[in-house]
Automatic annotation (TrEMBL):
InterPro entries: ZrgA-like. It holds the Pfam family ZrgA. Keywords: Signal. It comes from the Bacteria. Residues 107-129 are annotated as: Disordered. This is DUF2796 domain-containing protein. It comes from Hydrogenovibrio thermophilus.
């Protein structure tokens, strides 16, 4: 029995990027900043984005109004269906899936009781912290041509986002960089 490359990728990414991801993921909850991790195995890519909910929705408290509820629905739909992240066209990468950990979903509240208790403490002081975790998978028809990543659409759809700290593990290299509104793309080469 053999594992598919994507399964191996999903299993390998946490270990391969653990040191850097651990340091970055547990870095301070910083509004305006998101973390992006990308790993490639053959023609498959796993890309994850960790961001304060403020960057995505403009707030981190449970939605109080219909306008805020609509904002959450709209942004979640954009994450699933719009190309917020693109690669150079020569690689011909197509999105296969998008998984979102919605911090305002009722199930999420029950799964993180400790975090919830922590949030109540912050609510008493007027502060709450919620994060959004997104996992995209892509399949590339020409993976050897993969050379760049563009987040221009992500910056346009998330107006509170200013900086993305990215790190990647490709078939022949591991590196990282910082993307911003002024520099929304980065070259892997």
């Amino acid at each position: 029995m053999t594992l598919r490359p994507l399964t191996l990728l999903i299993c390998a990414v946490p270990g391969l990027l653990a040191a850097n991801v651990q340091a970055e993921t547990h870095a301070a909850h910083e509004h305006g900043v998101a973390e992006l991790n990308l790993a490639q195995v053959e023609s498959d890519i796993l890309l994850e984005i960790n961001s304060p909910a403020h960057n995505v929705f403009g707030f981190e408290h449970p939605p109080h109004s219909e306008t805020e509820k609509d904002m959450i629905k709209q942004r979640l739909q954009q994450i699933k269906t719009e190309p917020l992240v693109t690669f150079n066209p020569e690689a011909n990468c197509q999105q296969q899936s998008a998984l979102i950990d919605n911090p305002f979903h009722a199930k999420h509240e029950h799964e993180h009781e400790h975090e919830h208790e922590h949030e109540h403490e912050h609510e008493k002081s007027g502060h709450t912290h919620k994060d959004v975790h997104i996992e995209y998978t892509y399949r590339c028809q020409n993976p050897q041509a993969l050379s760049s990543l563009d987040l221009q659409n992500l910056f346009q759809h998330w107006p509170q986002l200013e900086t993305v700290r990215a790190q990647w593990l490709l078939s022949d290299q591991q590196s990282g960089g910082t993307l911003s509104r002024k520099q929304p793309s980065i070259s892997f080469k």
